[in-house]
Amino acid sequence: SVEMAEKVKEVAVEEAERIKVLATDAARSGAYLYPIRGIAYFVSHRSLWKPLTSKLIPTLTLGLGVTTFMFVFTYLPQAAVMTFTQGPLAAISAALLVLSESSTLFTMLSKTFLIEDALVDTFDGVLVSKDATNLVSSGRHIQAGGDPMAKLGKLIKKPFAKFAPKAIIRYLMEEGPDQWPTRGISS
Q: Which of 37, 77, 132, 153 has its CB 3.0 to 4.6 Å from that of 141, i.e. a possible disulfide?
């Protein structure tokens, strides 16, 4: 039993050290600043707005529609079931659950049907603006033009597969870690 306690203590110390190293690496890397830097870059380069502004109204409508649908059809049943486990807090918990479910559904639908092409165009536009046309030219035609978005021609190959089992599994596996700025997919 003393042996087991020592083993547990040893594993806990090793894990604490590993977490300390990871946290230090994350803090030094500055990866947590990438979302802020990306927003600043996007805001300061108006030419990158073109693909996304045309999708703004349909995307907002989809988000409102999905959230409304989810509240109308799933809130009361979930609140009723949660009443048994959460008591008076069930209403709040059910609302948060429905918002979370709506967010997941909205993200999958909007990325697949509305903003996929706009995201690809914006991503490629950033690469072109950073003089990385060699990376973009393998997947699309590059034209002569002034601003980066005007240089983007027709796609030669699609970077994403829609609703293929492989794409869905990859999306579900990567969506969680992709939201962590200090970890992300690139690690």
A: 153
